[in-house]
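agent> Task received from the user: take the single chain below, predict its 3D structure, and emit structure tokens. No templates, no multimer pairing.
agent> Plan: (1) validate residues, (2) run structure prediction, (3) serialize to tokens, (4) report one or two observations.
agent> Step 1 OK, no nonstandard residues flagged.
tool_call: predict_structure(input=
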Amino acid sequence: MAECEINGSERQDSQSVAEAPKLSDLFDRGWKIFDEVDNTNDPLASNSVQVRVKRAISMLEETSRMAAQLDLFSPNEELEEIATADLKYLLSPALLGALTMKLTGRDKRLEIVQTARAYFVDFLKRCKDYSISEFHLPESVTESTVPDEAAENAPSTCTPMPSTSNLVAMAAQRQAKIERYSQKKELEARLSDVRRSVESGQADDETSRDFYLLNVRKWVILCLDEVQSIDQEMQILKSMDQMQLGAAQPAKPSRPPMKPFILTKDAMQAQVLGAGYPSLPTMTVDDWYDQHKKHGVLPDHGVPRRVAVDEDTDAKEREEEEKERQAENDDEDSLMKARKWDDWKDDHRRGYGNRQNMG
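)
tool_result: status=success, residues=359
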């Protein structure tokens, strides 16, 4: 009985080992699914496409884990030391990054692009270690997303003018992108010729090696462009998150409404009205004036009016002084005018001819 159980468990183990997918099969299936998703006309957010994307990601993650366990790549070896059959596994991080970028999820977009960037940078570092292509590694996330000090201090309502160094860097990036585009077209033309031999199964070891190396070099160009686009998108996403956090913060509490009160002339009237209306507080005119004066809410505190009255008084005084000065100088015209005015006042009462004051 025990022997039957042991034999049964051994058969199950052998079956599970036989059913376990091989490294090459996992990678080829994941790569094939990526090509199908990349060339499909179905919406990227559709359920069928997202299911295939997640399945391919799972396969390529398992491929990367198995390649790490087998120590297929080492920074101490040269590119020529890598077996031709193992060259294609260099593409695992690049394909994982491209598949991750196809995931949908508006709330998790920042997390998605950060994960994809990590895959792309890992692929580029490995290609840099093996000197597969000549290129500059992208800056780290903290260095590439730190805003310029001038842009930080600039007002939010205007766009800061780029400095001379920024313009030079932008021109260099544009030139590098143009060169990468021409290199990509050249690599794709060479790949189309080599792919026919590999897919037909008639390619020798040298042709297969050239096919995988051309694919790796093409993905170096694609990853450099993707990292540059991701860095720009991350800045936009972080700015949007900050704006949403600012909008979510509660507004400052408004000033509580003013309680009603009865305005009285003096303290005695306040006591009388207060006894009759206990629910409403009372306030004298002096108290109301002092309170508003203390808070500086009075319109003019009476100062302009006093100034106006003083100006009128000064004008009248100057007129009287002028009359007295003319009388002292024995001005005949002034004397005649004054005498006529006195005679007229003797014959007419005050307010004569003022029709506005009629009863």
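agent> Step 4: summary for the user.
The first helix runs from residue 2 to 19.
agent> Done.
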